[in-house]
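Field log, afternoon session.

UNIT: design team B
ACTIVITY: writing a sequence onto a fixed backbone
BACKBONE:
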């Protein structure tokens, strides 16, 4: 009897924990899908759900991550990104802008010419990612084939697949 009661209590607590966790993640992703790029003093602030730093040769393996206060800002002459520390680089130091996506993620990936490190920002919003990559293209940053393909998609399709 005690074992059955303990098992039922354990299963209820386990289910409640994952239910709350699921609702928190869903709420955060829903807010991200409604987010928009804002402009302030000539700079574009890109809202991120998470930021990651890694190495060029293993882009999907994060060296560090930040889902509390990541930052991505496009200033007139440089980009500012933050995972753990804030990093600023002129647009000329960006050797490639890539686009990667998976379930619940829409990522803008930067490779830097003067470093083996990368920055990846998850917007969780395909339309927002597309707008950010278009802004980087305007600033002369080289795009990967995936980033070019995202920009060449019809706008309605990009909106419909957040």
């Amino acid at each position: 009897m005690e074992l059955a009661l303990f098992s039922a209590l354990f299963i209820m607590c386990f289910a409640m924990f994952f239910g709350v966790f699921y609702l928190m993640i869903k709420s955060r992703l829903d807010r991200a899908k409604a987010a928009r790029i804002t402009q302030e003093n000539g700079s574009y602030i890109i809202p991120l759900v998470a930021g990651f730093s890694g190495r060029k040769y293993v882009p999907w393996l994060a060296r560090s991550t930040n889902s509390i206060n990541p930052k991505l800002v496009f200033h007139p002459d440089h980009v500012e990104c933050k995972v753990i520390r804030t990093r600023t680089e002129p647009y000329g130091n960006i050797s490639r802008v890539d686009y990667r996506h998976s379930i619940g993620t829409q990522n803008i990936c930067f490779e830097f010419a003067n470093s083996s490190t990368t920055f990846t920002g998850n917007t969780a919003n395909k339309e927002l990612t597309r707008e950010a990559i278009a802004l980087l293209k305007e600033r002369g940053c080289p795009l990967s084939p995936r980033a070019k393909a995202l920009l060449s998609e019809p706008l309605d399709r990009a909106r419909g697949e957040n």
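LOG NOTE: Residues 35 and 47 are 7 Å apart (CA to CA).
NEXT ACTIVITY: expression trials, pending approval
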